[in-house]
């Protein structure tokens, strides 16, 4: 692609600003971080992330939801679903989240992100201390019963190829910071568990 350059071809240095992340966090009265919701389609990532955002907003906490489908419209609208494009998709989201976290905003990211390696790349970009993996667990049978978007049916009929959980793998997080099983739990219960965790992380340091 014509707009891509090699690192070695660039002559760019960083400008040091006068306001630090710590100062922005102090102004906000809370810390910032990146909460990465991973799980099968229909497991409840968007439902929980948006409900948590509303709770945070009502408490005066700055937060923003990055949702899989939404970023595909703009920021990553030029990318396909090939493995290379998926990793570029992740890289861009991770870099944007890093900027948002630096700005003092809590990021709630709802992406299936089925591959452990891709999630690790996001962790590497965002940084170990800021990255919180939240596994929204739900058996594929339940997700399929929910079939909110009708995609499971299409995947079963072979009309969608490489569908996570049906014809493509989902690699479960081995040691997520939080695991929530949404099967047999009300939305309110799941939101409550995640909100408690998120609030704990965002608490200002004494
Ligand atoms: N405990 C629960 N937590 C979250 N959602 C639940 C729960 N119980 C039932 N649901 C329902 O499951 C569905 C989850 O859909 P949602 O769009 O949030 O999934 P998703 O993980 O974002 O999927 P996708 O990856 O396709 O965007 C909603 O219809 C929601 O009402
Ligand atoms: Mg979603």
From TrEMBL:
Specify the enzyme's EC class, one word.
transferase
The annotated pathway is:
Sulfur metabolism; hydrogen sulfide biosynthesis; sulfite from sulfate: step 2/3
One biological process GO term for this chain? hydrogen sulfide biosynthetic process
Task: List the keywords (alphabetical).
Answer: ATP-binding, Kinase, Nucleotide-binding, Phosphoprotein, Transferase
Q: Which reaction does it catalyse?
A: adenosine 5'-phosphosulfate + ATP = 3'-phosphoadenylyl sulfate + ADP + H(+)
- Cross-referenced HAMAP family, in alphabetical order? Adenylyl_sulf_kinase
Q: What is this protein called?
A: Adenylyl-sulfate kinase
Lineage, opening ranks: Bacteria, Pseudomonadati, Thermodesulfobacteriota, Desulfovibrionia, Desulfovibrionales
What gene is this protein translated from?
cysC
């Amino acid at each position: 692609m014509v707009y891509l350059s090699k690192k070695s071809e660039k002559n760019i240095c960083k400008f040091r600003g006068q306001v630090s992340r710590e100062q922005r966090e102090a102004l906000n009265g809370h810390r910032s971080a990146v909460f990465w919701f991973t799980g099968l389609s229909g497991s409840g990532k968007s439902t929980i992330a948006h409900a948590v955002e509303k709770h945070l907003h009502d408490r005066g906490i700055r937060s923003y939801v990055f949702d899989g489908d939404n970023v595909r419209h703009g920021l990553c609208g030029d990318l396909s679903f090939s493995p290379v494009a998926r990793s570029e998709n992740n890289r861009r989201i991770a870099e944007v989240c890093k900027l948002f976290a630096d700005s003092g905003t809590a990021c709630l990211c709802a992406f299936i992100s089925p591959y452990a390696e891709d999630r690790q790349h996001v962790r590497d970009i965002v940084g170990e201390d800021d990255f919180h993996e939240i596994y929204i667990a739900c058996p594929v049978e339940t997700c399929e019963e929910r079939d909110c978007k009708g995609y499971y049916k299409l995947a079963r009929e072979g009309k969608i190829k490489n569908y996570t959980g049906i014809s493509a793998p989902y690699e479960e997080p081995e040691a997520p910071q939080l695991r929530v099983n949404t099967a047999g739990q009300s939305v309110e219960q799941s939101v409550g568990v995640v909100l408690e965790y998120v609030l704990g992380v965002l608490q200002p340091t004494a």
